[in-house]
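Open question from group meeting: does this chain pack into something compact, or does most of it stay loose? Before anyone orders reagents, we agreed to write out a predicted structure and look at it together. Recording both the input and the output here so the notebook holds the full record.
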Amino acid sequence: MSLNDSYVLGNHSDGILTERGFVDHLLSGKRSDAEAESEWISMVEFVRNVQRHGGAFFDVSTWDVKRGREITPAARRWLAATYLIANDKAFSIFLKASKGDPHYGELQPTYREFVAAKGVGAAVSEPERLGGEASGVWRRVFANGLVLANPSGKSRTVPLPDGQQFTDVSGTSVAGKVLLAPRNGTVLIHAPE
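Structure tokens returned:
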């Protein structure tokens, strides 16, 4: 199915469920950095398009510890940032272990990355792709903070708004700039004054 066919399907459905998962983008080494970045951007645009046309999008991200695909804190930050960049109130990401994994069938804990995602409040901007030293990083501003996602294969330094203090999901104070590793993201909450 072509991307255009997918958009037509997405425009005329009540919702879409995929088990392909955004975590696959992070963990798969089968694509070049440019291909992986382009694929992430296309997936985010597709998810946002489905929501613009009144549909919901459900992503099931699967990991398999036996194959070295563990859901690390970096992977959870990536998924939380992706969720916030793409979400327009009808998008959900589910985390699950694959069949045969020792954690298969267990309810997964509520990770602090996703709890923090709720703390940013409502989106006050559309996602935007940054340039300069932060080239390729995506940012979205929220009422109580901002979210950054780096789908590229290179680390990027992202300047933060002047004079603003933030706290990341681990409670660390952040100001001035933040370094994002490849295929990583962060949720930043405005620090209390």
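Observations to bring back to the group:
The two ends are 51 Å apart (CA to CA).
The chain has two domains: 3-119, 128-190.
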